Amino acid sequence: MKITRKTALSSIFGSLLAIPSFGKKPKSKDLEEFRTEFLQAWARSEEYTLKLFNQVKPELLDYKYTPESFSFRTQFVHCIVFNSLQLCGRLNVPNPYKDKNNSHWSALSKEQLAEELKGFYQFVGTLVKNADDKTLMKEHGFSGGPIPMWRLFYAMENHIIHHRGQALCYLRLNGITPEGFVGW
Fold it and tell me: Residue 2: which pLDDT band, with cuts at 50, 70 and 90?
């Protein structure tokens, strides 16, 4: 049997595509591992966020280092409102913060805002626990390109880290030495 060069090359390259390292791999993620890891990190994030938040004096809640910057309070309110909006919109779940406007947030005492933070952390933890695998694997638009929902939870935590870092600077600008980082 005579094999042409074209047939031989097609057979070789066709076989290579069947080998996982050469073919396109299906996207996969161990989502139980994600849930376990994320929820552990999320609990530590809540612990550190509240530790940092509780170090501010009530009279400094509305401190801004410049007129156009977020206040200490707003650093945390923004984390709650913005992240909930992003998650609820993509997961198509009711947003528990949608009717809470600026006057609501600005009227809260330090203790009330701490309770709102705790509620937010509980809300997100419940979303992660209850989301099915298909939902967590679904890709959504994000800056830089689409990402699966499970990665968006990490992006949201990264956003919180940024604002927590801003709050840490606010403490230092007011002569308060922040307590140490607790890590994951």
Answer: low
